[in-house]
Amino acid sequence: MKPIMTMKTISGRELPNYIDGYGLVKPFQGAFNDGGIKTRSSVELTCVPPGDLKVLESLEEALDKLNMNDGMTISFHHHLRNGDHVLNMVVEALAKRGLKDLTIAASSIFPVHAPLVEHMKSGVVTGIVANYMSGPVPEAISRGELKKPAIMQTHGGRARAIESGDLHIDVAFIAAPTSDTYGNINGVYGKSACGTLGYAVSDAEYAAKTIVITDNLVPFPACPIEISQIFVDYVVRVESIGDPKGIVSGTTKITNNPVALIIAKMAAEVIKASGLVRDGMSFQTGAGGTSLAVAAELKRIMKHEGAIGSFASGGITGYLTEMLEEGLFRTLFDVQCFDLAAIESYRNNPRHQFMSASMYGNPHTKGAVVNNLDIMILGATEIDTDFNVNVTTGSDGVIIGGSGGHSDTAAGAKLAIVVTNLMKARLPMIKAKVTTITTPGESIDVVVTERGIAVNPRRVDLMEKLSQAKLPLRTIGELKTLAEQITGVPKALETSEKIVAVVEYRDGSVIDVVRMVIDNGYLER
Amino acid sequence: MKKFRRTMLFMPGNNPGMLQDAAILGADSIILDLEDAVSLSEKDSARILVRNALKYLDYSQVEVVVRVNPLDTEFGPQDVDMIARVKPDTLLIPKAHEEDIKLVDMMLDKIETEEGYGVGSIKIIALIETAIGLETIHEVIKASRRTVGVLLGGEDLTSDLGIMRTKEGEEIFYARNKVATACRALRVDSIDTPFTDTNDYEGLIKDTAKAKSLGLTGKAVINPRQVEIIHSVFAPTEAELKHALRILGAMEEMKKEGKGVFSLDGKMIDAPVINRAKTTVELGQRLGFMER
C-alpha cells in the first residue's frame, strides 16, 4: 500500500501516514503530548490447579505444549547481553519446526544474535522489535533484509507498549539465572548470574504464555524472588542459558582518555553550576568510560559540598555501588547490573533496589522513576542544532544502537546533559540535521564537548547560571562551525525510499524512520 | 599580559589526533616534539605534519613550542627551516650549548626577514640536558635575546653524568638549583624535568612541590592528566593569598605613617617580604583567584 499522504512530526520530520508492515503512523507531537487517561491490556491466562507440575525436561516439550503458529510474536530480555544463548536456541528450534513469519520482541539485540540474519533471509523471522541493537542483525536490517520495518522503542516505551497491548506477546521466553520448580526466578544466583531482571517484568506479566528457561533449577521456593510464579506457565531446564564472559564485565573502568576526562570535568562543572548538587539529589549515568568519569568528578563535588543524594538509577556499575557504600546516595534503583560488583551489591545490600523497565521509564504509569531524576548524563552519535540527538544510526545511516533509556531519562530529568567529543575521527558530531532523531531536542538541556558547552536556548535560567560560573559557553551553531573548520562538512547520505526501521518515541508515536542507505560499497563493516 | 609556563606538555609530532587536541588539554604551553618521540624513519613526515598543524589548527589559546632535533644532526637545521616559516611561538633546542643557540638565532633572523615577520618574534627555550650545558648555562641563556626559558632534561643529564635517575630526584638537586638560580638571575623561566610515572599522582605532587621550593617556575608534562595537579601545586594557597594581602594592607597603613620597616604578628616586614607578597597577589590575580 502506497502512502496516502505525508505528515510532519513536531521536529519537522516528514513521515508517511501509513507504513507497510507497521501500520498507521502517529507522528511525534512533543514529549508530553500524549498523557491523560490510559488503559492497561487485559491478559488471558490458564489457571494452574494444585498438583500440576511446571517443570518440563526440554525446550521441545515446551514448544509441543504451546501450540505455536506462524505469525506469532515471541519476546526475550537482554540481561544476558552478548552472552545470551536463549534467543538463538528458541528461534532455531522454531525454525526446525517450520514456523514462519515470527516477530522477535527482544528488549535488545547483540552481536551474539547473528544467527537471526539467516532466519530473516529464510522468512522464519519477518519482524523485530527492540530498544537497542548492535552487530550483524541491525546491519542486515539496514540493508533491507528484514521483511517488515524493525520497530525501535525505548526501555520505558517497550514496557508501555506491552502493558497497553500495542505490543502483544504470544510467548515470552525468559532466561532465568535461577528458577525454582514453580517458576519463581531471580538473576542473582547461578553460573549465569546477571543481577536484576528489570527488563523481563512486563513480558512475564502481559504475555499470553510465559516460559522460564533456566540453567540453575533450585527447589521451591527460590529466594529472592524477582518475578513470581503467578506469571509463569512452564519452567524449562537447559544446560546453559549464557556465557558468563559475555553477560557482565569483571569491572567497568573510568576512561584514561585525556579529552574524555576534560569533557567529564566540564560536565561536572555544569552540574555544580546548575545548583542541583544538594541533599536529596538524584543522578544517572551510563557505563561508558566517559560517563563513569562524570560520576567520579561528581563524587568529588558531592563530597566537597557535603551533599547526600537520594538515589542513582539505571544500569548500575560497581562505581555507583561504591558511591552507595560511601553514603553519597541513600539508595540505588537498578534495572540492570553492568558488572560483577553491581550484582554482588544488589544481592547483599537492601538499599540497592530493583526496578522494572516500567517503573524505570514507562510514561503511561502513575509516575516513573525518571520523573524523579535530577541529573542525567547521556551520550550521542550525532546532535543537531535543534539539540535533537541520534543514538540509533551511525553517520553512515546504519543502525548501531537505539534509545534504550535515552529518551526516557532525557524526558524526565531536570538536567539532561549530552557529553560527546566534538569530532570523532574525521567526523563532526554536531550537524544541521541528525541522520535519525532518537531523542527530541526539547528534552536536551546542555551539550558538553571538549571545545565548549552549548545550552538549549529554552533553558534561559541555566544559561544564566552557567555564564555566572564562567563556563566556556558557545551556541550550538558555534560548536558546529568549530568542528567543521577542522573536518569540513560531510556530504549528505543518500537514502532510498524504503523504510527499514520505525523509531517510536516512548509514548508510541513515531519520531523518525530509518531509510535504507544506498549502498556505495562502503557499508560492509 | 605575560603568558604562564607552569606546564609545558609534550605531544608527539607524528600523531595527527593528538596534534588536533593538543590545545585543549589545559597546559599553558604545548611542545610538539620532532625529536625523541619520532623515529628516524618518520622525521620528515612528522616535520610536515607539525608544519601543517601550525598552519591550519587553532592554537591561539596556548604557547606553541616545537622541539626540533639537535642542531648537530641532519634533521635539526631542516626542522628549524621548515617550522620557523609557519611561525611557532617558540623553538625548544635540545642538548643546548652556546653555539647551538647562536646558530638557531642566526637562522631565525634570516627566516623572519625572508618571511616578513618581525625579527626576534620567534622565541627560544634551551633544553639543558648535558653537563657542559648545565655548567655553561649563563652563556647558553645569553647566546640569544630570544631565549625566554630553560627546560631541565633530567633523564639525558643523568645519563651524561653516568648516574642513576631516581623517582626521589636527589641526583638532580644541584642541577635544579643551578637552573633555577641562573634563570632567576637572567630573568627567564625555569622549567623542571617531567615526572615520568604517569600513574603516580602523589609522587607528582611531591616532585612538583620540590621543584617549586627550589625556585623553578614550571614543569614539563608528558601526560595531560598531570596538568591540573601541577597547576594546583604552583598556585598560591588561600592562606598564602590572605597573608600576602594582610602584609600589603599593613604596608599601606605604615606608608601613611612614614615607616619603612614594621612588624606584623611579631615578625619583621621589610622589602623582600613585601616583594614576595606582591608576587603572590599578582599570581593570584592572574590565575583568576581574586579580583584585580
UniProtKB/TrEMBL annotation, chain A:
Compartment(s) where it occurs, according to its Swiss-Prot or TrEMBL record: Cytoplasm
Record key words, sorted: Cytoplasm, Lyase, Transferase
EC number assigned by the record: 2.8.3.10, 4.1.3.6
Protein source organism: Candidatus Desulfosporosinus infrequens
Any one GO molecular function term: citrate CoA-transferase activity
Protein name: Citrate lyase alpha chain
CC terms in the record's Gene Ontology section: ATP-independent citrate lyase complex; cytoplasm
Catalytic reaction annotation: citrate + acetyl-CoA = (3S)-citryl-CoA + acetate; citrate = oxaloacetate + acetate
The encoding gene: citF
GO biological process assignments: acetyl-CoA metabolic process
One Pfam family linked to the record: CitF
UniProtKB/TrEMBL annotation, chain B:
All residue ranges annotated as the HpcH/HpaI aldolase/citrate lyase domain in the record: 6-224
Class of this enzyme: lyase
Keyword field contains Metal-binding: yes
One GO-annotated biological process of the protein: oxaloacetate metabolic process
Protein residues bound to Mg(2+): 129, 156
Transmembrane segments: none
Entry keyword Nucleotide-binding: no
EC annotation from Swiss-Prot or TrEMBL: 4.1.3.6
Annotated keywords: Lyase, Magnesium, Metal-binding
Gene Ontology molecular function: citrate (pro-3S)-lyase activity; magnesium ion binding
Entry cofactors: Mg(2+)
UniProt-annotated binding residues for substrate: 67, 129
Stored InterPro entries: Aldolase/citrate-lyase_domain (IPR005000), Citrate_lyase_beta/mcl1/mcl2 (IPR011206), Pyrv/PenolPyrv_kinase-like_dom (IPR015813), Pyrv_kinase-like_dom_sf (IPR040442)
Protein name in UniProt: Citrate (Pro-3S)-lyase, beta subunit
Source organism of this protein record: Candidatus Desulfosporosinus infrequens
Lineage, highest ranks first: Bacteria, Bacillati, Bacillota, Clostridia, Eubacteriales
